[in-house]
Fold these 2 entries.
Entry 1:
Amino acid sequence: MDLLSDKKFLAMALLFVLFILGIAFFPSGAGMLLILSLILFGSLSLLWKERNIKLAGLAFLVLLALANIGLNGLKYGIDFNGGTRIPVLLERPATSDEMTELVSAVKTRVSVLGLTEAKVRAIGDSQINVEVPSSDENTIKFIEDTLGHQGVYQGIISGHVAVSGEDIYSTSIAPLGTQELARSGADWGVSFQVNRHGAEQFAAVGKGKADYPVYMFLDRPADASLFISRSELRQNMPNDATEKESLKALSDALELDSDRNITVYIIEDLNGSVPAPKTNKTKALVFGNASESFKSSLNSSGYVLKEFSSFAVTPSYNRTRAGVLVVSELESIGLMSAPLLSAGLATGTPNYGFSVTGSSPGTGASKYAQATAAERRIESILKGGSLPVQISLGSRTTLPATLGQEFLRLSLIGVAGSLLAISLLIGLRYRHLKATLPIVAISISELIILLSILGSFTIDLAAMAGIIAAIGVGVDAQIVITDELLKKNDEETEERIGHAFDIIKTNVIVATLSMIPLLFSGLVEIIGFAISTILGALLGYLLSRPAYASMVGMILGKEEADKEGAKKDG
Amino acid sequence: MEIPNIFKGDYRRLAILPLILILLSLYFIFVIQIKLGVDFQGGTLVTLALSEAVDSATLKADLAQEGLDADVRVYQTTSGYKAEIDVPQSQSLVEADSLKSDFNKLLPGVSTLEVAALQNGSRMSEYLVKRAELENISDQMFALANVSREDFNISGVIEEQKAFSSSYKKVYDDYQVFVSSPIQKHVKYDSISIQTVSPLLSTHFISQAIGVVALSAILSTAFVFLFFRTAVPSAAVLTGALSDVVIALGAMGAFGIPLTLPSFAALLMLIGFSLDTDILLTMRLLKRKGDNREKAFDAMKTGLTMSVMAMVAFGALFLLALLTHIPTYYEISAVALAGLVGDMFATWGIDAVMLLWYVERREGNGSAQ
């Protein structure tokens, strides 16, 4: 095989291997990789004129598409797989920035449940659809609870609630302006206002507590105990701190009046005997990697076990101006931040406006980015959760899996049927086997590539309709070329092919231009259709180039083809 | 198969049939009118999977008796029966949405005023006026939700907002119950899907769709003019495409195909497809040597082959839609098929006639044989 000594072929083969590896190791990026490979192989076959190379490019593309289907499978929407769709309604229309944030926040909430297959997408500017491939009542109920959950904010100063979320005017929570920041000397800041109850409570609790930390909690558990191992405690401890000091800081942070204290236990000090829980609902917050025997002894003592990652049970520390060690963050108990109380707020007179400020490390753009991130974080904590806009849940739709599978089966029959019918008609129209075969072969290749690309995202009803349509529209390019080639006049083959490609190129541009606004419209229900129509047109154009190389040979005879194929572009 | 060249002789008569079709379409578009689907009109579409057949007229009457005025359609599919119940947009939802938007507009200002009033009693009169305005809006919402102000413990704006939000949610929940409970009472179903498109959402869909159509039309028109750089051929191509869309819209009116997001997508695709055949014809006519009418006829053969292939694909989709009663399939395929038929008439009856007339006049042999 002289192909093996051809540098161009080897380059293509190398690309092919790289793409295969990419598809195998980054399944989540497979769709984008396939589109990239399509553009790359398409441009290479534009650039390199040899027939063999063009055909090799096409073959590589089809192999890549097949490999993707084989390795990663095709993803179907809940219309075909069965599952549940839960509409999440927004309190008010969201800006596009807020929407991006909301979608990713909702995704995080759902993925906490281990439902990586869940699909979250924005419908317009006031709704988000969550689709999960499950119709199990318990799972769905759990998801609905998680989604609909509205967090509770509490600001606690030395064991007393100073400010709670229900006293804060939600519309008043806003980042500080540049002027205010300059005045306070901070890098970032968030201001908010409270009502009379909030103002009076804060004044009473904060009196004389200047430089004390205000522990900002989100969903602080009311009835829980924290079990931490000595090594976890020591891990993030500042170098100059003692174990005793950090343990004191930790229990300070967990202190809350009446009986809402969270007690900290060092696992090693318990010597296997677990203290009795306060109630039968007391949660035991514990690092997930703790020994199984310890966890089961917690269980048998009557705790409700809640396991966390190492990060969530390891506190972060800070020091007050007076040098007292303070726990500033501990996720497992919902401690999000611990800014220090300024002297002006500790006088005991009611205040209605507050601000949380801070400094961020670094310089220039990274400093700015960090400051913005910190600002956002505080904003969302004060608003009681990670969502910039309040949400409520609409009524869910459950699609039975059996019905979906029936739809899928019929749809695939439809795909095959339409391919078959078109092949037959092409055969009848040209009555020229050698002209018909390449057309059919190209249609099949197109179908494989299209299915593979769309299947790495999600094939929903609209995308399936688009795929079936693309079989009919994608064949157009081949018809234009074949009609030109079979025409009986004295034009050179080169000229004819040029004519055909002029027409095809223009058609692809028009088809793309008329559909492209749909891609950016956010009308997600029909984006699948737009993508498959555009890809179908594009594939017809890109793939018919290599196909033409073989068609010239078959239709016009070997001799002429060798002559033609070697010297011109498609 | 040999078809005689239809462009021999007085080709102008070819325009008669398309023109009749366009007039008919205009009648269906403007007099009979196209039905708006749930996406654009808002409202609720309930889809039920049934194991046994129900009579749509009886069910409609039963639901009407419960106060639910809805359209009922029942289909037989490959997997049992399927009922679609179309409930028009509820007036209280429209009102609730508009109240909500008014409330949200007023809220930040009133909050600021309230804090100022609490802090030092300043701007008190302004606060009281605005607060009363806000209360007036929430009272209307309470009325919609069948609750009263006394049900809540409202002292400040924060509680006002909470009460307002929960009443708004109650309006929505009540509506869901209003729709689903009569259905539950009268039909035994295997599965139910309730798709509610809120007034807010349908307005959003409409504005997005208009934006998409406008952009798509501008892009395509600009490209055609840039590409041909002459007025008459460009105008002919665009007339062909426009006629095609008009015929497709006419068919939607005539056959009762609703305008939904899927049928909208199909219409958009038709712009591209009909421009395809128009451009094929124009390029063959203007940029090649040879007898004009032969060239036009050759182009028609290629163009018809293209159209037939597309029809086969959409025909398969249409068959699939008849079997499964998946609305997305039906709406896309029916509109596309109508448009493809329309495209044949529009391209070869209108665009071709305009172009031939233009080329022959330009060449100075405008005689019709």
Entry 2:
Amino acid sequence: MKLWYPQGHRAVSFRHNETSFPDGFCMSFEVTLEQYAGPLHLLLDLIERKRLPITEVSLARVTDEYLSYVDAHEPPPEELADFLVVAARLMLIKSHEILPREELLEEGSVATLAAQLELYKLFVRAADILDARQQSPERSFVRAQADALKPEGFVFPEGLTALSLAGAFGSLLKHLAPFFRLQQAAVERIVTVKERLREIHDALLTRARLTFRDLIGQGRSKVDIVVSFLALLELVKQKTVRAVQSAHFGEIEVKRVE
Amino acid sequence: MENGTGKKKGTELAVYVEAILFASAKPVAFPQLKKQLEVSDETLVAAVTDIRRRFNTERSGIHLLEQDEKIQLVTNPALGEVVGAFLKKEASGPLTRPALETLAVIAYRGPVTKPEIEQVRGVNCSLILRHLMVRGLVEEREDPARLQRVYTVSPDSLREFGVRRVDELPEFAAYHQDKAVTELMARTLSSEEAI
């Protein structure tokens, strides 16, 4: 299946030692400017580039690349939350491979991400079909002017009363309510790994050691916890902190590396 | 019911519908026609079928376009290149990938709700939906059964894709009714709560 790249900016920059394959698939490349149509698009591209089937195992294998992409190319603010939700679900899948299975792992959502990606892939194909239809010269036209239906002057619409107007406004407000709720939720969810990284770092400047539980604090959302965990992993990688966990599901102790 | 005027029956009704469609140029909705011509659903559908059978052939320059209980007379899609050149109509610019994907979900699964579209694409689609509506490719209406807003592709959209009904889109049946797709959609939607 053909994956799409935005016109004008072919987003893949090839290195000097690139190897071209007969079908145009190039191996050693680095994604630089890719504008993905969303987190699933990115995920699908990562999996298909490795020619993996869409399974839990494949998803776990591309988790790191997914995270580093999101870190390197901050998605537009309005989509960041969606990218992070997928990141959280990938971390969960990966944790299944590492951690012993416990009842607190949600089976449902793991099966779902592969299923959702499968579904998304179908519609990527459907989008390709529509794209081809739109490019084809086959199309219909209509008569330019609809003279017969031109209304003469102002016509007071039938059934317009003060009551129906109030009713219409009421239902408009009802429709807007979930939108406002959604906006608020999105804002709450957007805390970048980078911000959390700095927070943890600052916290460790005042205290030499603390626990992961301290970092999460009270009443944080699940995505927040995942973001904190990602930030912690990043700090461990940078060798800024040391993390010790004495037992499975035990407290994680975080220490500053002097 | 159609005895009201006693004159509009069967194929004769088709002639009235045909004339109204020609004069209107714009898409005409079933309820409008039923009210004006005082006919039942079945009679109107029979008349529309008759028009479709007579018009939608290679030998006809005018075809009948049907979408979501709206019908319109349009030019034969196969003649698009010549007619477009005569009218000096440029093909509209290509759609962005997010817009195409959103349109694909709506075209193949419509009428769909916004959460259903977002479930497939994994991202919030409010902006893209608004953009598609501004461009006149997608229409929004209230679904009284589901008490939600649902989205369908517009007749203009079908004209652009060179089809006369949405089910003429390639592989429509596979996407629209296919058990696997339906199951995947239901599965991903129901387990969304778990996250």
